[in-house]
Amino acid sequence: MWGKSTAAAFLGLPLSVLIVGLAALLSSDQATTTLPWLMVFFLVWIAVMTGAFLFKTGLRAWLWMGGLTLAGYTALHFLKASGLIRIAA
Amino acid sequence: MKAATLRTFIAVHTWVGLVAGFFLFIAFYAGSVTLFHEELHAWETPLPQTAVPQRDPQTLIDAVLLAHPKAKEAFYLRMPSKSEPQMVLEFDERHFRFDASGKLEEFHERSQLVDFIYRLHYTAGLPNSWGIYVLGVVCILYGLALASGVIIYAPSFFKDLFALRIGKNIKRMWQDAHNAIGILSLPFHLMYAWSSAVLALGIILLAPFQYMIFDGKLLQLVGADINAAAPPKASGVAAPLIPAAQLLAEAQRVAPGIEIETMVYRQAGDANAQLQAYGPIHQKTVASIGAVVLNASSGKVQRVMMPENYSPGTRFLRTLQMLHFGSFGDAAVQWMYFVLGMAGAFLFYSGNLLWIEARRKRQKLVQPRSGKLMAQATLGVCLGCVAGVSAVFLANKLGPAGQLPLWESRSYYSVFFGCVLWAFARPPARAAHELLMLCAALTLAVPFAHWWNTGLNPLLALLHGDGVVTVVAVLSLLFAALYWKMARAALHRGRHGDPHSVWSLQLPPSSVGAMQQAA
Questions:
Q1: With contacts defined as CB-CB under 8 Å, which chain A residues touch B9?
Q2: Which stretches of chain B sit within 8 Å of chain A by CB?
Q3: Is the pTM here over 0.80, yes or no?
Q4: What is the number of other CB atoms lying within 10 angstroms of the CB of residue B7?
Q5: Deepest in the core among B38, B449, B472, B489, taking most CB within 10 A?
């Protein structure tokens, strides 16, 4: 229980920021859709933290969520660097 | 669903609920009162009986800028309203207006009853600078409690939806009441968890997006959706202000139907001087605030934000905020929110009581210490808040004029902490009875204190057209009666209820034996 709780508390925020951030950056009209995505962020955050408790053990929660977070931010970095994803501002 | 998953979510619901429950009780109780902030403003400071002469706003601006040149960087002008018939200029949290003879005066609010209870709503009584962030985190826990609560409840949704099994099994009854209120007012709670988190944490949670996703360019994307205009930079070229009446007329021309309530000036006296004028436009939308941005020294209109031309993001944000404040549907919405808000406070109170019931040892007279401590903490914090809020109302009418804000906050904190100490000093059943009696007495005293202070009989007030006084009196009597009944029930359960409980006043047989021996 402590493993899952700490995974929810520490990994929930960066992972949901990543999910919502990617969705916002993939939009074709970022100036219009970014703020709505930022509002939806709160729901995604709660969903991700709730999801952390669905893993069988705390270790699995940490590995899956931590792995996704690391892989996601690395992918985002390269997508931005290669120009495949642009920030429209 | 697997039993293990269900057990996990029951644990999540229990623990986030217990941590957040105390704060949420205070937020909901104080918030329900704050719904009526405009009406209560008239109750706390009686309106002047004579008509206040209306002056040109520019005369107040000129007088303040002459006396305090540094105000020109930023100041607010609040136009006269029903609850505040005088125009007020604010800068650096200082308030200015004209006195009866037409001279400029700086003044302090005579009373801060409404402001105090509003701060209590979003800080739970913690210091202003960080209390709101604590409550922001509480909102996230509240969201988690709602999600896990729904997951736990989902399997028996249809069976239990309208069940309220009143009977011998007290835990069953409390559980049914908790579930019924929780599920039937779920949309209301979802909206509150969401909108409160946006209000309390929205600004600081821009930071991770700004730095980790948008490479520092987020505000260029969403700035125009969040604010009507960015603060201007001074150009260094002096230019006089265009008279306020002329700017107001221009704002009304470009935003027909706007009733301007607030004017925000920045860099007055500079060529880049900016005026943001805000006010409601009645267009039958939930978010109804329009904004006009003008250059205050050239009169050029820079932006018009009307509910009808809001961007999707602005509409989303403002609508969520308006749903939170309940200011979109007048009295019907206020009263519905009041009932749901009080029911919400009960939801959190009953959640704690359920935890104690769940931990009750049915066969043992000596109950676990955790149950007793939780009972005492729940009583102290929840009833301390209830008694404290009533004490603020009393202080407003009984405190010495001129020092009301100080007396109001002191009376809240002394009653609140007094109740917490009392709850821990007494057995739970005694504390429940005595604190509820205190709540009833303080609440009952409110209309009488008002009567004594103003000489205005609450029934006669209705004839004079002052419905607020009468409604406050009726609600006080109603709530006092409720607290009195609850106090009686707590004492009755202590004397005659199941002795295997922290709420029992019946002595365990071992100590009875010891006393008989001593006698």
A1: 53
A2: 5, 8-9, 11-12, 140, 143-144, 147-148, 151, 194, 197-198, 205-206, 208-209, 212-215, 217-218, 220-222, 225-226, 311-314, 316-317, 320
A3: yes
A4: 12
A5: B472
Instruction: Report yes or no: B293 and B275 within 8 Å, Cβ to Cβ.
Output: yes
Q: Which amino acid is at B265?
A: Y
Task: Determine the residue of chain B that is closest to A46 in CA distance.
Answer: B144
Query: Given the structure tokens 């105000």, which residue do they identify?
Result: B71
Q: Which pLDDT band holds residue B180 (cuts at 50, 70, 90)?
A: confident
Question: Over the stretch B462-505, which tens digit does the pLDDT of each residue have?
Answer: 887 778 889 999 999 999 999 999 999 999 988 888 788 888 88
Nearest residue, CB atoms, A46 vs list B147, B214, B225:
B147
List, as one string, the DSSP characters of B55-67: --HHHHHHHHHHH
Q: Indicate the average pLDDT of chain B.
A: 88
pLDDT digits (tens, 9 = 90+) for B325-339: 988 888 899 999 999
Q: Does residue B519 carry a pLDDT above 60?
A: no
Amino acid (one-letter) located at B41 = H
Which of residues B278 and B467 earns the better pLDDT score? B278
A interface with B, Cβ–Cβ < 8 A, is: 1, 4-5, 13-14, 17-18, 20-22, 24-25, 30-36, 38-39, 41-43, 45-47, 49-50, 53-54, 73, 76, 80, 87-89
Cβ A41 vs Cβ B205: under 8 Å? yes
B221 contacts A31? CB cut-off 8 A: yes
Closest CA to B180 of B157, B147, B151, B146: B157
